[in-house]
């Protein structure tokens, strides 16, 4: 089979033409390192400059101060901002409140998402399954602001919640922390359902059948087979709802009444108070909390099979 | 079947998926301690029957009885049958020992006892010492054995096996066939074995049900199924057969009704040689010869244009190339020509 010496033998199939694009492809397929370099340069540039440098700038700024007379940022090293943030009772209270809201939102979302995702992945037929996936994704097409204001009107005095609960002697919780928890739970629910749904999809039906076959009733199967396999997905989902809640400040402004979360403090200090270094120091709080959270998740081994 | 209660009794069992009759009005008794195979092409309903017995599907109509008890509406965890799944369905987050002990744990067996019983079950499938591993660290054959140990450790009355050897390579499959048979003998429980591999079914089974389109096409011992197929479907699905339809058998064989004959029952002789007593001779030409190791498979074209397949032991030293084009006399013993026409039940075994 010396086809190279006798090209006319394969007359039926013309040889590919030697275009420049083809020569580049040949070169790249033979030089793995060049290929890797070309593929990674742009994303690494983005990650390095835009992401890491911005985070570093945040960290450095937190150790600077503001000249109270001119309002200019003075670039001399001081621990004052950090000390203020760590010891100030305002910051401690708001941090606890923010973590509490984020945890509550996460728990509520997971509690809602588990049955919904289970129905989608294991009960619904293929057609209903597609419809439900679209239904879960649909709210993401609408603007965040529109959804937050929609909840403002739903929770308003004389709004839908009032109207619906009035016959039973209830009333809307009004604007405040409960409203913030409700609205944030609504906003992040798709981000919690989808990872759990994807995790359930990866649990073969035969495992559920095997468990039942070996004598386990439904709840036992859930506890011994489904949940352990789903654990990484639940952690992944909780990272979304928890971190998104930690950084939110718009929803609080819209439905939170007079309450403030960490995001609001950052916002006020950047704007009205014109204290960028203090804002940076406050912004380090959620960063620190997330580092602790991710480390704990890693310790639990949940991140290994993500 | 009147005095002894069968291990499994299916009565008028029907399962439809939309318009499709996956299982169509099935009646079947499976005896205690039997190695029973359900053989058929994919989509013939054999797996659905297994899932109906296990309780993973509920029948559209009909009943499932387990040792005389109606279990039709019971959940899988309420039935004394266990399944070995096609994909083994081992729990990936548990060790091998925890997998095997799962059924005992669910039943509330104490830690020490379930450990001992699980280890004994692992030893019975030659996997002693593998308890600490995860299923992903095992080979396909080993996973298969873990699945067997997990299903048998809870001592079910009936073990259901859904194409358990399908994913294994030939050598391993043959080895596992022997082990399955030994396991069934030592446990003495009923095995219901689903397969599409006719050779596997013939090797292992006490009885075989050949499935086609949701119905049992034929039920019998391996010998009955192979030697006396009762329909063109069984004749062609189980092994290879030369089938003569009613017209051809009248014309060529001078016999009424459609007939079937196995390739290994046919002999080839030089043209014009004397025919044996009670046999039919047909003139033909060898059009293809293939060496298959233990034998040579020949395709002979008869004068009428019909082609028949012949399997000949390798006694001739002539090469396959040489034999193509040979004129031959094809000899078929009349007694080997099995009738494929439905016969009244009372004469079926004669």
From TrEMBL, chain B:
Pfam families associated with the record: ABC_tran, TOBE_2
InterPro entries: AAA+_ATPase, ABC_SmlMolc_Importer, ABC_transporter-like_ATP-bd, ABC_transporter-like_CS, Mo/tungstate-bd_C_term_dom, P-loop_NTPase, Transp-assoc_OB_typ2
Segments forming domain ABC transporter: 8-238
Keywords of the record: ATP-binding, Nucleotide-binding, Transport
The UniProt record lists the keyword Repeat: no
GO molecular function, one term: ATP binding
Name assigned to this protein: ABC transporter ATP-binding protein
Species this protein is from: Antiquaquibacter soli
